[in-house]
Prior knowledge:
Blueprint: H1 2-19, H2 42-45, H3 51-54, E1 62-63, E2 67-69, E3 74-77, E4 82-86, E5 91-95, E6 100-103, E7 106-116, E8 122-123, E9 126-127, E10 130-138, E11 144-153, H4 158-166, E12 174-177, E13 192-197, E14 208-213, E15 217-219, H5 221-228, E16 247-249
Parallel strand pairs: 1-8, 2-16, 11-14, 11-15
Antiparallel strand pairs: 3-6, 4-5, 4-12, 5-7, 6-7, 7-10, 8-9, 10-11, 13-14, 13-16
Helix pairs in contact: 4-5
Amino acid sequence: MERRDFIKRLAFLAACPLCVKTAYAAEGVHWSYEGESGPEHWGSLSKENSACSSGSQQSPLDIRGAIKADIPGLALNWKSGGTILNNGHTIQVKATPGGTLRRGDKPYELVQYHFHAPSEHLVEGKRFPMEVHFVHKHAETGALGVLGVFLVPGAANTTFASLAAAFPQKAGDETALHYVDPRGLLPTSLKYWAYEGSLTTPPCSEIVDWMVAIDPTEVDVADIKRFTALYSMNARPALASNRRYILSSS
């Protein structure tokens, strides 16, 4: 584990200039979710993206055969507000500084959260309408901890409705958010699946401790449509697990 943390540290330092600006994604090189700049070509678009094609711990995954284990619980203390941005690939919220996630004795700070449609992770082959990724930076190693939550049609969700009403319509548009609490996007239970993986966008750096909530969160289907009107498909296909273990809260 120490060796992996050291590798994560180096990878994060290499990727950091790309990471802190928008969605932890490569900038300066055009990439997309289809055609000649789509996921199957990301690795050849730039040498910085080589992990997208040659990496062995890529994300997302189809979560199958998870092993029940005594994995640490999650403690969240996020802050309301921030800024909301249409970055050309998704809608992203830059979090108010100081929000934290603690997984056992590992502390992370919430940097941003963003959305994918349909979901990037699958569960036993099933894909969900949307997925939100809460991206955190480890306070000591600089590695990333990403919490994924599936969003499904159902009862209206106040937080998602507020975000949907504020979605910037054009790439590059950004506006302030007031009093929107990201904790409203969480399911009641914080049981989760855990595995070691990567960013799901270029440069696909393998520096992520993934946590995917087992239970989904219900949101109004009309608010899902507000997102898909902007981004109808911004999900990377599931990748091979390559014998990685997926652990599940017991």
